[in-house]
Write a structure and sequence with these properties.
alpha/beta; 16% strand
Length: 293
């Protein structure tokens, strides 16, 4: 009698992160075999937890074993992630991975900074691929991001984005697109700019937060140099300068656009920011405090 072969797995990197955890949950809900990868191999319901560290190549083989597709989340706070990601991807291809879906950013095109180099290389490494380029996350204001922390602590949002508008997107919608890109019969074979349904200024974001929670929240605009130095207190200067530069680009209108990607791939409309805040902060103790700017 021949042995039963286990179905190929989807390897999800950053499996406990903002999008990774949601991708794992959706894949498990569909009955897929999932390898949930992270530095601590944290147990994730319904998935096989595996240890993975971008900076420890000894963890690559075990994570890749039995996987034929991978969800890629770059190492955090690295301005040159291609240095470690490209060798991993070459090993992934050699081990039998045939589809790769990369999480990038709407602000970064192929060949651009940070993961832009990986984006550029992906089509040459895999026949089946996609690059997700979401706008800024709604969870930045409600989760564990620096904006959410400053909202809770001080009732302020600090940016160098001025009055620029951004079509913020819910991480649940990003994950829904990611699962389609990973599992549909045909891979997208392109980059997908993912946005919410409306572009909002940070002042408008603050107003929605204040209205829903009943607390004082305000946007405090900073100059590029002020934002860079503020960020550099908690991260490398090069990375802080890049993030402050993205804010400056937003001030100039770089993210003032919406796309139909969520509806086109999932069949439903993306969540509005107000609905996200109502679901996340409405009538909860995690709402921002009354102390304002």
């Amino acid at each position: 009698m021949s042995a039963v072969t286990a179905p190929a797995a989807v390897l999800v990197l950053g499996a406990t992160g903002t999008t990774g955890s949601r991708v794992v949950s959706r894949l498990v809900g569909e009955g897929r075999r999932v390898k949930a990868a992270g530095r601590r191999a944290t147990p994730v319901a319904g998935a096989e937890a595996v240890r993975f560290d971008w900076y420890d190549p000894a963890t690559y083989e075990g994570a890749l074993a039995g996987a034929d597709r991978v969800y890629l989340v770059a190492p955090l706070d690295s301005a040159t992630p291609a240095d470690v990601m490209l060798p991993f991807l070459a090993q992934a291809r050699a081990s039998g991975v045939r589809r790769a879906v990369l999480l990038s950013s709407s602000a970064i095109s192929a060949g651009g900074p940070v993961v832009g180099q990986v984006h550029q290389a992906l089509p040459g490494l895999f026949d089946e691929w996609a690059v997700l380029r979401p706008s800024w996350f709604m969870q930045n204001f409600t989760g564990d991001h620096m904006h959410a922390r400053s909202i809770r602590q001080d009732g302020v949002i600090l940016t160098a984005a001025g009055e620029g508008r951004v079509a913020f997107v819910d991480a649940d919608d990003i994950a829904a697109v990611a699962v389609h890109a990973l599992t549909d019969v045909r891979a997208p074979g392109t980059d997908l700019v993912i946005t919410g349904p409306e572009a909002l200024s940070h002042a408008e974001v603050a107003a929605v937060l204040a209205e829903v929670t009943g607390r004082t929240v305000a946007h405090r605009p900073l100059a590029y140099e002020e934002m860079r130095d503020h960020l550099a207190a908690s991260m490398p200067l090069e990375y802080a300068a890049m993030l402050a530069g993205l804010d400056r680009a937003n001030a100039e209108g770089a993210e003032d656009r919406t796309t139909d990607t969520v509806r086109r791939l999932t069949g439903r409309a993306p969540r509005t920011f107000r609905d996200h805040v109502l679901a996340t902060l409405g009538d909860t103790e995690t709402a921002p405090p009354t102390r304002g700017s």
